[in-house]
Design goal:
With 301 residues, this protein is mainly beta. The chain contains two helices and 22 strands. The strands form four sheets. Strands 5, 11, 12, 14, 15, 16, 19 and 20 form an eight-stranded antiparallel sheet that branches. It has an eight-stranded antiparallel sheet with strand order 6-7-8-9-22-18-17-13, with no helix packed on it. Strands 1-2-3-4 form a four-stranded antiparallel sheet. Bound molecules: 6-O-phosphono-beta-D-glucopyranose. The site of 6-O-phosphono-beta-D-glucopyranose has 10 residues, from strand 19. 6-O-phosphono-beta-D-glucopyranose binds next to strand 19.
Length: 301
């Protein structure tokens, strides 16, 4: 059954020498990409980018060394897709944090090799109304994986009523040492500080991470840059139709308590900078409308 599924995926969507599908264990299917510009991997579950490493660069996307790849479980690292809500559900604490897209099985709808040498991959999640999300919805994730990584999350409201969605591309970025980075682009923005009881604050200057950080920056549509002094590089985050940015690092105690970060100091090598529409900045989608949230990640020295 699994072999037949892998064979079909490789026949229908594999690209000779560049893109193939494998079983990462217990039927958890991962797509491997290797082209002239990068190496990367994407899990079918959650349409979840797990790794991305442009040629001659250190990895850009962080993945926990002990991440569990299992059906219906979220993966610690990569780019989880939070959808159709961000964080806890507004009224039902039994529903999963960050929605169900990240733990759902997505379908591959197309793959291709682009003229610039990158790979294009599209996934879709066709949702039938149920108790956790009573709206007929189609969600697509379009990726361009090469020297840059582009992702577009597209939501179609196929139901007969407007719907409110929260969403985030919850990207875990690799840094050499989170204590020696600066995050630019959020200066003067208001944010909800989840570490201090969700009080509203205003960012003074650039962000330096020296303790647990869990913040939702609001009304923030501009690009963000992670400057990594040890790796001597900048990660540029260009975004469109995203009005919130989440910055998260669990720091020591939370990292230890979560148990899926690897070493106790596993938090030092990552920072999440999430391009989102969340909290006050959720999106109302009219009947028949489509919403596109896009990001593009690139590096400079
Ligand atoms: C962040 C939230 O986006 O995700 C944090 O702001 C949360 O509060 C973190 O702890 C990780 O969430 P999860 O569900 O993947 O453990």
């Amino acid at each position: 059954m699994l072999n037949a599924q892998l064979l079909k995926l490789n026949q229908s969507f594999g690209i000779q020498g560049q893109l193939s599908f494998r079983d990462a264990g217990d039927g958890f299917i991962v797509m491997d990409i290797q082209n002239d510009q990068c190496v990367a991997s994407v899990a079918l579950q959650g349409a979840h980018v797990m790794t991305w490493q442009p040629k001659d660069e250190a990895p850009v996307i962080w993945m926990s060394p002990v991440a569990k790849l299992a059906a219906a479980k979220s993966i610690r690292g990569g780019v989880p897709i939070c959808w159709p809500w961000f964080g806890p559900h507004v009224s039902d604490s039994n529903l999963p944090a960050h929605g169900f897209a990240r733990t759902s099985a997505w379908d591959v709808i197309s793959t291709s090799k682009l003229e610039n040498g990158a790979c294009q991959i599209s996934f879709c999640l066709q949702h039938q109304p149920n108790t956790s999300w009573p709206y007929a919805t189609r969600v697509e994730m379009h990726m361009m994986i090469g020297a840059e990584l582009e992702m577009t999350l597209q939501t179609y409201n196929l139901s007969d009523s407007p719907m409110v969605i929260g969403q985030a591309l919850h990207t875990y970025f690799c840094v050499d040492d989170v204590r020696n980075i600066v995050i630019h682009g959020l200066e003067d923005c208001d944010y909800i500080d989840k570490v201090s009881g969700s009080v509203r604050k205003q960012q003074q200057g650039s962000i330096v991470v020296a303790e647990e950080v869990d913040r939702i920056y609001l009304d923030q549509g501009q690009d963000v840059v992670i400057e990594d002094f040890n790796l001597q590089r900048r990660i540029h985050i260009h975004k469109e139709n995203s009005h919130a940015t989440i910055v998260w690092n669990p720091w020591l105690e939370k990292c230890k308590s979560m148990g899926d970060f690897g070493a106790d100091d596993g938090y030092l090598g990552m920072v999440c900078v999430e391009s989102a529409n969340a909290d006050e900045d959720v999106v109302t989608l009219a009947v028949g409308d489509t919403h596109r949230l896009s990001v593009r990640y690139s590096l400079t020295a």
